[in-house]
Amino acid sequence: MSLRVYNTLSRRKEVFEPVEPGRVGIYLCGPTVYKPSHIGHAVGPIIFDAIKRYLVYKGYKVRLVINITDVDDKIIAEAAEQGRPMAEIAAEVEADYLKCLDALGVTGVDAFPRATENIDRIIVLVQRLIDNGAAYAVASDVYFDHTAAADYGKLSGRRVEDAMHGTRDLAGENKRHPADFAVWKGAAEGEPAWDSPWGRGRPGWHIECSAMSMALLGETFDIHGGGVDLIFPHHENEIAQSEAATGKTFAKYWLHNGLTRVKTKAAAGSEKMSKSLGNIRTITDLLEEFPPETIRAFVLSTHYRRPLEFSDEQLKATASSLDGFYILFNHIKFVANEDVYEEGKDITEVANEAKTKTDDAFVKEVLEHRLRFHEAMDDDFNTARAIAVLHEITGALQKFMLEESVYPREPGCENVLVAPAGRTIVKLGRILGLFEKKPDCLVSYQIGLGDAEIERHVAERENARKAKDFARADEIRDWLAKRGVILEDTLGVTIWRKA
After folding, report:
1. First and final CA of the chain: distance in angstroms?
2. What is the DSSP code string of 159-185?
3. Nearest to residue 140, comparing CAs of 85, 210, 191, 104?
């Protein structure tokens, strides 16, 4: 199956064919660094880090760029409110952002260009637009003439009249048309500013990304990403000014991730995460409560184009699902004396060592699941489906271990397929940035077991007892006891209490 991606520009899935065979350039719009980064700021980097990992796995050489907007009206306003220099605030917030991304396993970013370090490139691009008749200066401001882009609106599908709303530009009383937007802004007294042919000023928001992406990836590159809230006006204006400057296609594929929403008790169910609504959860705060792998898995458990419904309950559910993998990996080490986190054979390398019909059927099942993992990722990077496949392999392996009487009771498993099957889960998970290292302990124990999770384990124990799998029943009882949950079997039922 060929890799297909949903292109916002064409509004359909397309076969992925990079501009230069074997090489992929990706640009993702990063944060405006004026407030500590919240979970929504981590979503795009986690998604596109996973996308890069998969493309590298498929043999591409990939360059991933995420910009830092470190000069902007919002940062200037925050600096004025705090009575501190803009550069100091931007550097402080950026450092926190990069530290959080590193903790979340976002290790594939090749460059984090800052707007303030690219002022010269931005000025050159603005002048190029003026020379092409696509921009005009008014006093110390420079505006892009939207009529220079005959297909303006092709990304968002919005009419020119819509461009009068929702921009981050200043009022611009001297603009020729309300749809024109600033590519250079004359600075007010006391504001950060740089020298330019049009006077002291600073770049407009949109021109920053055009200059930095083309400088690092070329005038035409493969993938431009960002949240759906950036489609208009930011990405629409990026396309217009970039293509007016170069006469070339700016980005071939446009991938947009859904917004992060916060679950509420209201009938509507959820609302957009935003500073204005006061429902922000910073990444730093979340990392104090949840392991990084839990947060990463949570983000990837929703297809990137869908809204991400955020809540502590959802994170705890993700933690519980990860525990299922960790427990299995521990069982494999116990019975097979192999650590699946370490290098070794996976199922593809031992397929011909199957000895029975049950072995053959199991190998076939795991290989089919492995194929479905790749099919999910080839279908517009469907990480949610890919993770679901990992759970399916886990279920198949647990069933196989029960059928072959090698489920954890005592060490000494001789079946050569068990550890490779577990290692297959790890290797596939690492394509998504999961299972990079062993957890210190079970995640649900770290964050506390909820009542629903306890009930699930109690029900599993009851099923084990009915199946006369008393070893498994005792194992679950001991597992809960270590977490402060006491079980009491009385009158044919099991009740539980927290110690």
Report:
1. 53
2. -GGGGGSS--S---TT-SSTT-EEEEE
3. 191
Secondary-structure class of domain 309-444 per CATH: mainly alpha
β-pairing verdict for 308-310 and 260-263: parallel
What does the domain layout of the chain look like in residue ranges?
20-272, 309-444, 449-498
pTM higher than 0.85, yes or no? yes
The residues pairing with 69 across neighbouring beta strands, listed in sequence order, are 32
* pLDDT, tens only, 87-118: 999 999 999 999 999 999 999 999 999 999 99
CB 315 within 8 A of CB 126: no
Could you tell me where the DSSP H helices lie in 65-134?
Answer: 73-82, 86-103, 119-131
Residue whose tokens read 């931005």: 122
Q: Which two tokens stand for residue 418?
A: 């068990």
* pLDDT tens digit sequence for 174-229: 789 999 999 999 998 889 999 999 999 999 999 999 999 999 999 999 999 999 99
Can you read off the two tokens belonging to residue 154? 């092709």
Give residue 237's identity as a one-letter amino acid code: N
| DSSP string covering 25-62 | EEEE---BTTS--BHHHHHHHHHHHHHHHHHHHTT-EE
Residue 268 — φ and ψ, nearest 5°? -65, -25
CB within 8 Å of 467: residues ≥ 6 apart: none
Give dist(CA 385, CA 138) in Å, integer: 52
* Token pair in block for residue 83: 């009575």
Homologous superfamily of 20-272? HUPs (3.40.50.620)
- The residue ranges of DSSP E strands in 164-310, in sequence order, are 181-186, 201-203, 221-227, 251-257, 260-263, 270-272, 308-310
Burial category of 265 from C-beta neighbours within 10 Å (exposed 0-12, middle 13-18, buried 19 and up): exposed
